[in-house]
């Protein structure tokens, strides 16, 4: 069976790329199609694949560095990939990968949809809320055409997979399609063996992007005058550094070994964002570290209130401060947290993903429309 794998862009090893890496293990002979590919920034498993990259990434200087500026061109770019003669196409998409055009149309296309595009739907203002910024003007003009394209191309997907019930509901709302929920993988074995030795600092592990709301954690720790270590980089780093007081430390991206050590020592993980799933809280729980999370999104499906962490109800520093103060009397069940996190282990994800793909691809007989509507 000829298989094609499609991913939006391969320029780092975030949660989406860890899902894609498992697909590369399951289908090592597959062809890979992506808009931007930076081999040094992905795992050896992905690097070993046969990768087809968008022509503009190779020919336009600095395109890979400033890839976000090419968003208006992404729909046409992904549609022009030559996805012909494959028996199975699997896309992993948080942007445009699901809009791939397999030929013939009877080809089974399974999409693991991390989320419908955040910056077009639920979180537009987080990204483009500043009316004085040039990108805001451009995106306000392009928002509706891109939304229409996003909805229309959902019909090119035979079956949707989703990382959480939260995303499944968003797929229903925006695309009017159902999805099978398979939570993404966590390297439980790496984190679960680390001995818990709590120290006196809080921890944030996050891309430094607008919707992540790391500013809430910074402001809360500024007011309480408690140490906070921040792991991650992103477009908001300069702004967040200006907000940070003397107790805030920016570590950039760290190795998996260093991250495991930070989880094991942190007083608690602060998780102020509304996430589609949220691998970071599961990693923390696997390391024996309690979680203080915003009560919305994927965290509600992973954090067990009163056992592995506590929630705060409003996305504000005041609400987070109350939860951090409650942490003083919280009795965290470390062993329960580690066992609970094992449900999301990489091996479990791989087995569930293989089973789902085999079952859904087995419906390939018959027309594309009949399969899609099954």
CATH C-level label of the largest domain: Alpha Beta
Largest beta-sheet characterization: 7 strands, parallel
Strand content: 15-25%
**Whole-number average pLDDT?**
90
From the 3D structure, determine the CATH topology of the largest domain. Answer: Rossmann fold
* Rg from Cα: 21 Å
Spatial ordering of strands, largest sheet = 3-2-1-4-5-6-7
Number of helices: 16
**Total number of β-strand segments?**
13
Word description of this protein:
This protein has helices at residues 15-26, 44-47, 55-59, 74-79, 124-128, 134-152, 165-175, 188-192, 214-224, 237-243, 256-265, 279-286, 317-326, 334-341, 346-361, 368-372, and strands spanning 3-7, 31-34, 50-53, 88-93, 108-113, 159-162, 179-181, 202-205, 228-231, 248-252, 268-271, 291-294, 309-312. By secondary structure, it is α/β, with parallel strands linked by helices. It has two domains: 3-185 and 347-372, 3-Layer(aba) Sandwich (Rossmann fold), CATH 3.40.50; 188-344, Glycogen Phosphorylase B (Rossmann fold), CATH 3.40.50. The strands form two sheets. The protein has a seven-stranded parallel beta sheet, with helices on both faces. A six-stranded parallel beta sheet has the order 10-9-8-11-12-13, sandwiched between helices. Strand 1, helix 1 (15-26) and strand 2 form a beta-alpha-beta unit. Helix 9 crosses helix 13 (317-326) and helix 12 (279-286) packs across helix 14. It is globular, with a radius of gyration of 21 Å.
């Amino acid at each position: 069976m000829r298989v094609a794998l499609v991913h939006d862009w391969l320029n780092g090893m975030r949660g989406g790329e860890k899902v894609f890496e498992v697909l590369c293990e399951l289908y090592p002979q597959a062809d890979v199609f992506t808009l931007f590919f930076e081999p040094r920034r992905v795992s050896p498993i992905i690097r070993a694949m046969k990768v087809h990259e968008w022509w503009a990434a190779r020919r336009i200087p600095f395109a890979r560095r400033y890839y976000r500026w090419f968003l208006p061109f992404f729909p046409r770019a992904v549609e022009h990939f030559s996805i012909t003669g494959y028996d199975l196409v699997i896309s992993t998409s948080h942007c445009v990968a699901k809009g791939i055009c397999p030929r013939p149309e009877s080809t089974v296309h399974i999409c693991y949809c991390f989320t419908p595009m955040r910056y077009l739907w639920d979180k537009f203002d987080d990204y483009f809320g500043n009316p004085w910024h040039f990108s805001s003007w451009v995106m306000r003009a392009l928002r509706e055409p891109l939304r229409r394209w996003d909805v229309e191309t959902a019909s090119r997907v035979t079956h949707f997979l989703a990382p959480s019930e939260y995303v499944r509901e968003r797929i229903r709302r925006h695309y009017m399609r159902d999805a099978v929920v398979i939570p993404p993988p966590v390297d439980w074995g790496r984190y679960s063996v680390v001995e818990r030795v709590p120290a006196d600092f809080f921890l944030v592990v996050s891309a430094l992007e607008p919707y992540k709301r790391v500013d809430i954690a910074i402001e809360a720790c500024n007011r309480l005058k408690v140490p906070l270590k921040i792991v991650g980089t992103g477009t908001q780093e300069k702004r967040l550094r200006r907000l940070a007081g003397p107790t805030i430390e920016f570590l950039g991206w760290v190795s998996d070994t260093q991250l495991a050590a930070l989880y094991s020592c942190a007083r608690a993980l602060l998780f102020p964002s509304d996430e589609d799933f949220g691998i970071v809280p599961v990693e923390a729980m696997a390391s024996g570290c309690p979680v203080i999370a915003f009560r919305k999104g994927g965290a509600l499906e992973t954090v067990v209130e009163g056992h592995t962490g506590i929630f705060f109800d409003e996305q504000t520093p005041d609400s987070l401060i109350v939860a951090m103060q409650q942490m003083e009397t919280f009795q965290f069940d470390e062993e329960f947290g580690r066992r609970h996190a094992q449900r999301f282990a990489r091996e479990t994800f791989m087995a569930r993903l293989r089973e789902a793909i085999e079952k859904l691809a087995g419906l390939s007989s018959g027309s594309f429309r009949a399969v899609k509507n099954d």
